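Hey, why these numbers?
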Amino acid sequence: MKGLRTLIRVRRRQLDEKRRELKDLEHLAAELNGRLASLATELRDEQVQARESVEVGFSYGGYAQAVIARRENIEESLVAVGQQVTDAREEVRIAFQELKRYEMTLESRERVAIARRAQREQRAMDELALDRHRRGDPV
């Protein structure tokens, strides 16, 4: 059972690491979403300024193209990170199932060991009682 306990510790560490990786990926996805929102706000602000100022209006076209390119890059990154998050969640689920399987095996083996110990103790008590009875010892 000692080997099984060691295996459980290893699996628990692996699960914790996978959970950390998932958390990091989810944080990255949230950060990318934040960048998209901030880019949209920045674009709206720039549009307002372009309407109000002729000088800004002349440069707005180039700026808008750059913003569109940045937004597309962020959206592509979001898609990639989204797939990584999905994969990481699946890895966490599998690691959790493996850990639970080992923990349940350990619990089962411990229950069997306790039951066997109880049977041995009961047999010993029965033999002791039978010996006392044969000798005629009072209880």
